[in-house]
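Review session, final week

We close the course with one last complete record, chosen because it touches almost every idea we covered. It is Sugar ABC transporter substrate-binding protein, a protein from Streptomyces shenzhenensis with 461 residues. Go through it on your own first, then we will talk.
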Amino acid sequence: MPRIPRRVALTGSLAAAVALPLTGCSALTPSKASSDGDLVLRVQGMPPATEKPALALFKKQVAEFEKANPGIMVKGSTTVFDPLTFSAKLSGGNVEDVIKVPLTEPQRLIQQGQVQPITGQLQKWDHFKEFNPQVIKQLSSGDGEVYGVPQYPYAQGLVYNRELFEKAGLDPDSPPTTWDEVRAAAKRISERTGRAGFVHESKDNQGGWQLTMLTYAFGGDLEKLENGTYAATFTGEPTKKALRLLKDMRWKDDSMGRSQLNNQNDVIKQFAAGQVGMFMGSPGTYRLAKMQFGMADTDAFGVAAMPQSGGNATLTGGDVYLVPKSADARHAAAAVKWLTFAYAQPQYSTTAAAQQAKSLAEDPKSAVGVPTLPVFDAARQARIDAAIKPYANVRTEHFEPYTEGLAGLDLKAEPPYQAQRLYTALDSVVQAVLTKRDAKIDALLAAAEKDVNAKLAADQK
């Protein structure tokens, strides 16, 4: 299922320097000592040979880690998460000592006992208490045990065109905070500018993905776990309300433009050309608008926290590094040292942040200063922001509605089991609502739920 377009779009400015897609895989043999007697630590997250700068950075990290931790030899792996094979490999112990998974996975893996808690050792790190509670909650069990370290998490919001807001007589410094306000603003933008007031993605699984965002904002979920089995819950009232909103905006208000079959790149391309007033996205979509689609007036880019309608939540994502159950005590201890050194400390360091920002700023096409979801608390993030500020080349004040509003929202990961299968089914529902005036929302959701649950049940036998 296509994930690369939105994962790229959701990566923050500093993340782009080190967070790169992984490809390839390798056969595994059990961890053991090297010929020199060193403990061999196998870690996912090594960039492929085609990504030379990132691979050089990874090798530099390995050399520095091994120097600081004599007796441990790091062996990098380019293995990428594959939802079709991951569970079988994990159950069979055929995985590395450090695994990298999307944020959809940790809660399921924790519940199934397939990963190890690392709380005790992670607490020894001087800055453990400074982790952002919103972020670390996604990697923790109900009893407070922590199981992983995040890498460049993100949270969804509302991207909007400040120039179109002004032309429509709206205040760009006070973007919508509720979905009723979004509807009203979209109608006004459409009427006064002739542009699409709001656009919702609808294909390549991104229609279902964005409907998940809306469902969370309306207070619902699209999947539940009962008696150890996952099932889709498409027919909840929050999802129905979200689709009724889209239907009204499309057919009553006529505020969603002429083109209804769009993926994320389609929407951002239209937005960059000044043809779209609002869409759901993160601050990181600024990079695509500017660098890939040539947005000329980047000062028109604005982003706010996700508007709400009873849910007080937004969808979050990113990558997470975990220690599988198959790792023995010595390898697990070495793995946590690596996680702290390679992922926690660099995201905490103001020096690293400044160095990366300075390097990026040398490219006039770059975007430095675009906010990400903070991994650490507000006080630390303020220091990181200050370190980056001298090199920022974006209007950081245009991102304030997002950063200020995000702190009050709950962060919810994507559905934990077969999310892409859910999105495939929901794409059809979204498309029907946006292209057929007489679409029957309840019937469409019921049919999609029945179809998906039959497939999920078969997968879980």
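Two points worth writing down before the exam:
Confidence is low (pLDDT under 50) at residues 1-27.
Residues 329-348 form the longest helix (20 residues).
Good luck, everyone.
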